[in-house]
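Quick one:
INPUT:
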């Protein structure tokens, strides 16, 4: 069975909704609390689970490569239970000396309709050596590798290893943070690139089409470029045909599109 591997961070989110942001040393009661698993790659795999019909034989397996605390920790068990049995976590890298999962604490202000985020992460990041060892175990099982693009220099070394040793593997990357150096070089090695609205606007693009058409000439290996645009939906550009498609955001009554940064 062929494997789709997603490589990226996995967080445990705690979201507190408050009427307003507290002043320094102020005591404030939250109106709601939500605890959930976060992270681009785990969320992507959760969506893919919903798109695949596991009641029928499937030709692809879903796997996550994320840095997690010790296998016996509460955090690691929460991640495992949140994704269920259809996502393989055996390729995750466990930091056995750590007990706390990467965590994200979010204050959401109802009056300002904004959020403030505080991250905590004691887990050391994945090295290219660790990824290469894991990829070499998968060998011919690996058919698609998706990277969050968190640490461009390390991720680029991982992509280059796949290009050298497993040329048939399709590679996709996310380009989100406009201040993160090295994302351009990383994207140039990918078959599929996902750009965020934040990255596009940070680089001077006014529309997703402007972003995709400008980036297309810089992506010699890519066959598909995508750009999300919050509540305006998402766009894609096929290469080399330059066939452009736009899809509006899904909308429903009482349903809000959240733009992530």
């Amino acid at each position: 069975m062929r494997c789709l591997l997603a490589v990226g961070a996995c967080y445990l989110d705690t979201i507190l909704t408050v009427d307003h942001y507290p002043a320094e040393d102020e005591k404030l009661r939250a109106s709601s609390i939500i605890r959930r698993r976060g992270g681009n790659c785990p969320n992507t795999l959760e969506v893919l689970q919903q798109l695949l019909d596991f009641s029928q034989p499937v030709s692809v397996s879903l796997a996550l490569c994320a840095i997690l605390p010790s296998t016996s920790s509460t955090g690691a068990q929460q991640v495992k239970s949140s994704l269920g049995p259809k996502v393989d976590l055996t390729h995750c890298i466990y930091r056995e000396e750590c007990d706390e999962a990467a965590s994200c604490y979010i204050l959401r202000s109802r009056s300002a309709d904004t959020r403030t985020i505080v991250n905590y992460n004691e887990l050391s990041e994945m090295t290219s050596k660790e990824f290469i060892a894991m990829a070499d175990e998968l060998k011919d099982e690996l058919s698609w590798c998706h990277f969050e693009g968190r640490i461009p220099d390390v991720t680029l070394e991982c992509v280059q290893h796949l290009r050298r040793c497993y040329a048939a593997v399709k590679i996709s990357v996310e380009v989100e943070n406009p201040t993160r150096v090295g994302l351009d070089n990383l994207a140039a090695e990918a078959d599929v690139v996902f750009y965020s609205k934040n990255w596009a606007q940070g680089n001077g693009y006014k529309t997703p089409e402007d972003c995709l058409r400008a980036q297309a000439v810089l992506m010699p290996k890519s066959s598909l470029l995508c750009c999300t645009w919050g509540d305006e939906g998402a766009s894609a550009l096929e290469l080399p045909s330059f066939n452009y498609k736009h899809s509006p955001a899904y909308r429903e009554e009482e349903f809000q599109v959240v733009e992530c940064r």
